[in-house]
Design goal:
This protein is α+β, with helices and mostly antiparallel strands and about 260 residues long. The protein contains 7 helices and 16 strands. Helix 2 packs parallel to helix 7. The longest helix has 23 residues. The C terminus is likely disordered.
């Protein structure tokens, strides 16, 4: 499809805004069935009770998510991602978002450590998949497969498809980050229904970045993710920049100061 390779770029102030979330804005895309996903510099935690603007964060998340989604596409794992448009924006396929956050846990951290009294950093017996209902008003409560099917958020076959995708994404991410000295503790994934005529398939949507992953340096245990913001540790952009450098997205000599990092073309 020609529009995938040569989308017609429309200035932001002339676009129709479809949706604005805590970290991203979705605009009408250049062709039917497409959207433009714009990454903001907003950092939020605890359902936006904590909120700051952190210069350069959106640029880094855009590039890291682009890197990951490109690899997922190349592996045959279906996603909504088409291509990056510029430093802050991606061209994506329009999907019907399933109102669930899918969390895959490899190591005890965050809420599971608190809920079950497990020491943070404990390797779990196996990867655990949890579902949370997407609702800021309710605090994104944890739900079971029974809740999901009873309330019609997803059908049993869709849940199976989501879990299969989550396992494949987890295997890829764990290996990817292990290769650059980073431990994948857990990550959040969202999925959507993509329609192609009468055919529907479940695809990976939203983003995968240090905003949605817990990433610990294997050698030092340093946090390289949004926990630095949640826990007032500071150095968020520096940590995201380090992740990008290790993945080969940034040159080793480049600095991320002022208006944000300089990225490899």
């Amino acid at each position: 499809m020609d529009f995938i390779n040569r989308p017609r770029y429309i200035p932001m102030n002339r676009r129709r805004r479809i949706y604005e979330g805590k970290a991203k804005i979705l605009y009408e895309g250049p062709e039917p069935g497409t959207l433009i996903q714009h990454f903001k510099d907003d950092a939020t935690a605890f359902n936006a009770k904590k909120h700051e603007i952190i210069d350069g964060k959106g640029v880094l998340n855009n590039r890291i998510s682009e890197y990951i989604f490109t690899h997922l596409n190349n592996m045959g794992i279906p996603t909504h991602f088409i291509r990056r448009l510029n430093m802050r924006e991606q061209l994506i396929r329009e999907v019907e978002i399933i109102p669930l956050e899918v969390v895959v846990r490899n190591v005890a951290a965050g809420s599971i450590a608190t809920r079950l009294g497990i020491e943070e950093g404990t390797q779990l017996p196996r990867s655990i998949i949890e579902f949370y209902f997407k609702s800021d008003e309710l605090g994104d409560p944890m739900v079971s497969e029974e809740h999901i099917t009873a309330f019609g958020w997803a059908a049993p076959q869709e849940i199976d498809d989501i879990m299969a995708l989550a396992i494949r994404v987890n295997d890829f991410l764990a290996g990817l980050f292990l290769g650059v000295g980073i431990r994948l503790v857990d990550f959040k994934m969202e999925c959507g229904r993509m329609w192609e005529g009468d055919m529907m398939r479940i695809v990976v949507a939203d983003e995968i970045s240090p905003d949605s992953c817990r990433l610990w340096d294997i050698a030092t245990g340093d946090r390289l993710d949004k926990d630095r913001f949640r826990k007032d540790m500071g150095g968020l952009v520096e940590s995201y920049t380090e992740v990008a450098r290790r993945l080969g997205i940034l040159n080793e000599s480049e600095q991320s100061r002022g208006t944000g990092p300089t990225l490899v073309k």
